[in-house]
Write a structure and sequence with these properties.
The protein is an all-alpha fold. The protein is 53% helix and 0% strand. The chain has 4 helices and no strands. The radius of gyration is 12 Å and the shape is globular. The N and C termini lie far apart (36 Å). It holds the Pfam family DUF2789.
Length: 77
């Protein structure tokens, strides 16, 4: 069975955030510059469930892992 690789837009939707290209760009603009020593899931703007989802997806190397790595790179710029 073919399953599509999650996108940054679908990740934002999964996290309960605005998922249009404009909303994502605004999120990056607002939150970019995360401390290099801070893990993505520890950022202060995630709620408990968002943080747990991000951490678990990476630990389990889930289908979301690649797009979460992209999110991580964008926010640590």
């Amino acid at each position: 069975m073919f399953t599509e690789q999650p996108s940054i837009n679908s990740l934002f939707s999964q996290l309960g955030l605005g998922s249009s290209d404009e909303e994502i760009a605004e999120f990056f603009e607002t939150h970019r510059g995360l401390n290099k020593s801070q893990h993505l899931h520890e950022a202060p703007y995630w709620d408990e469930s968002q943080s747990a989802f991000l951490k678990d997806a990476i630990v389990e190397d889930a289908a979301w892992a690649e797009v979460i790595d992209q999110l991580n790179a964008e926010l640590h710029e």
